[in-house]
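Can't paste images in this forum, so I'm doing it all in text. The chain is below; anyone willing to post the predicted structure tokens underneath?
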Amino acid sequence: MEDAEKNPEITETPEEVIERTDMSDVADADEEVVVATTAANAPVETVTKSDDLRAELKNTDSEAGTDIFQWANLNDSIKNELRVEFFLFNKNYTPYTTTIDDDLDSQIKSLFLYDIINDVNLGAGTGLMVRDYEFVEKEDNVLLRTDLPKVGRAETLIHLIEHERDEIVEFSEQEHEFKRIKGIAARFSRKDGTGVFYVIKQVSASNTLAGATSWQFESGVFKPFVPEFGWKVPSDNQVLVVDKDIFIFNQSKFERLFNYDFKKQLLADEKIAEIEKAYKLSFPEGTDLQQLVMEKKKIVNKLQKLEVGVVTQEQAVEYADTMQLELMTDDEGKIIIMDGNDLEMFVNLINEDYITSEVTGRRYEIKSKKLLDEPEGEPPRG
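Text version of the structure:
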């Protein structure tokens, strides 16, 4: 990929400026839904907070170039010609195909397309700026963006939809359970298949109704809820993916959708480098420490406060034996990490997160701990 200048000016539209489109005011329900993308080559001013952060980002292979304002103008002019496909995806980012009834066509345009276009167009008139997610904190009248390749889960999801469509199965409540669904991705394109972009929203359990435990109110009477389940589609704009650019309209939901927090991940990367230097580890072929950490949000969080090296390799192995944990080593003395569970156990060991109760002799994993001051005087004698 060609190295393009980063830091396009991206902006997040302030909610108070945006007036939601009423469902009844949307275009005719008979119209088809479609979408397009466009790239802008104009250089954009870079906004950085630290040289170290900038250097870290320059090492990432990415492309920046979508002019979001040009994109909004173009798609506003052809919005009634766009078609749309929907994919649900679970917490493992496995996508499922799903069918949307034609009667929902007008709602689809309002909930997944019109509001994003309106937000950007309104923002163009109020000085909306586009800024890199990695460089700035959330601010008013700023739309955050990041590169798709940096957000591995999002890139994987879109890769599966674009290149492994034949292997994607249709969603079934009996087989897959809606409560396990994490998000919904609307794939827009023109009728000729070009101009693809995605609008992605989080699926929250609080917005679902289970048929077995819900009632519906009809003609003044409460009746059994007939469908298998109901879902209230969130009306807020959350995430837009155009080519290799991710535009973040709702930062917290973007981070929850893809378990991505750049600043935490950056610190985790530093800890990973320290761990690789301090300990001898062995992984299955094709797997490394970075990959396993990325798959475990719990470990990313724990690495934020981990003091690497306080517990040595030999102490970790002895500690595991004392706690009767199945920590394995190879012939070279390397600690074997087969999967995320082994990694979690290893991190707990070097963070001293296992104890044996002196009262009952039971073993515990500590969820949180606070270091006490050193005690004064002589230690108690047995």
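The two ends are 68 Å apart (CA to CA). The first strand starts at residue 83 and ends at 90.
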